[in-house]
Write a structure and sequence with these properties.
By secondary structure, the protein is mainly alpha-helical. The protein has three helices and no strands. Helix 1 packs antiparallel against helix 3. The longest helix has 28 residues. The radius of gyration is 16 Å and the shape is elongated. The chain starts with 10 loop residues before the first helix and ends in a 21-residue tail after the last helix. The C terminus is likely disordered.
């Protein structure tokens, strides 16, 4: 598996993954708010999915913060994905 993880990632790619993680988290929030989660998951399964989605968002936030901190002077900055619209094109 380590062979498939790139050593570097562009700021644009990192922002797209962060946006995707946020979108997934919002999806689970909507399922919770509407009660539709009961159609698809047990309570334990749903709780695990929500926890995993939140951890993924935090992981991408930390990676973006780290990338900003170690970026070489003059290098393109890691875009702040939180400032982008939530329906950004992920292609």
């Amino acid at each position: 598996m380590a062979d498939t993880i790139p050593r570097t990632m562009s700021a644009a790619t990192m922002s797209k993954w962060y946006l995707l993680a946020e979108e997934r988290s919002r999806h689970f929030d909507e399922l919770h708010r509407t009660g539709r989660w009961r159609r698809y998951y047990t309570q334990e399964q749903f709780a695990a999915h929500i926890d995993e989605a939140a951890k993924t968002v935090r992981m991408w936030q930390q990676m973006m913060e780290f990338a900003r901190a170690v970026a070489a002077p003059g290098a393109p900055e890691v875009a702040d994905a939180a400032d982008r619209p939530p329906t950004a094109n992920l292609n």
